Amino acid sequence: MQDFDTKTFKSETLQFLSGGGEMGALIRAKDWSKTLVGEPSTWPQSLRTTLSIILNSKFPMFLFWGPDLVCFYNDAYRPSLGKDGKHPGILGSRGEDYWKEIWKDIKPIIDRVLSGGEANWNEDMLLPIYRNGKMEDVYWTFSYSPVKDESGTPAGVFVTCAETTEKVLNFNELTESRNQLQFAIDSADLAAWTIDPVTNRFSGNSRLKEWHSLPPGEEFSLEKGFSVVKDEDREPLIKAIEKALLFFGW
Predict the structure, then answer these.
(1) Which of 2, 59, 173, 224 shows its CA 20 to 30 Å from the CA of 66?
(2) Is the pTM of this model over 0.70?
(3) Mean per-residue pLDDT pooled into runs of 10, the chain (250 residues)
(4) Is CATH 3.30.450 correct for 191-247?
């Protein structure tokens, strides 16, 4: 009779934890006997399959598992935790213990998913978290989906997410710049106009239209816009527009 090789048995039964970069290594090295989910060899197939998907994905993913909502995540999600924050202590810990600052926001979503509700979707949602040694405003686009166990009951919440902080801040900065420009124009009672190089349409603010007797509340062709410019100013204006369009690649 062949001797029973416990080392080989453990290696074969834990193949679902192979690979996975830094997080795969941390999961394999962790003493799970001291956690709420126990040793990986006892984990249900539903958890094994989900973790295999998470660890081998290049898209940021997170998992809340079981009644204690124990946390797992992959390498792609890791940067969003920053430094001097939740990583790596959050791995294998209760979600409520490590997400205290946003628990009131995400727990209702988790509860709805686990109670049989549909997958959730949020875009550019502000969820300030503790990372890099301080609280930071962080924006997320994310989905919470149910993970069903062998009985067909939701046993975990599968999170796919992308941090959109930079995008939102850039948009807000651009909006603020536009608002400041508009305020300056309005305060100085200046005329202003824009050109759409795609449609070749010309539009201006009420002051410009008033000055040049142009119809209010509508756009018009670029040619009509040029027609109200003095002859001696028209050529320099056309060159200035051409230069601006060339600068922006049009």
Answers:
(1) 59
(2) no
(3) 41 79 94 96 96 96 98 96 92 97 97 94 95 94 97 97 92 73 56 66 68 63 70 81 74
(4) yes
